[in-house]
Amino acid sequence: MNSFNERCYELLKKVPKGKVATYKEIAKALKSKAYRAVGNAMNKNPYAPKVPCHRVIKSNGEIGGFASGAKNKIKLLQKEGIKVRENKIIDFDKHLFKFKTPV
Description:
The chain is mostly helical.
C-alpha cells in the first residue's frame, strides 16, 4: 500500500492543465478528512513538475501556499490559462476538477 502522500500524488496526476483541485477534494477522494495532510504532501512533493502541486488550491478559490512562493504558483497557473485576481481563481467553478471515484 502506498503512503498517504504517494496516494495524493497519484490523484494529482489526473488533474489536467487548465484545471485545479482543492485540498479538500483530494482528501475526499482518498476517503479522508485530512485536508492539512494533503497540503503537507503538496509542500513535500518530490515529483514536481510531473506531479503538478501548483494545481491544488483552497476550497474557496484562494491560491493557498506553495513551496516556491505564491507568486510562482500564480505564474504557473496563468501559463495554463487560469486567471488569478487578488490571490483567487477567476471562474473557479469552471476550472475545478472533480475526481470521479474515491481511490
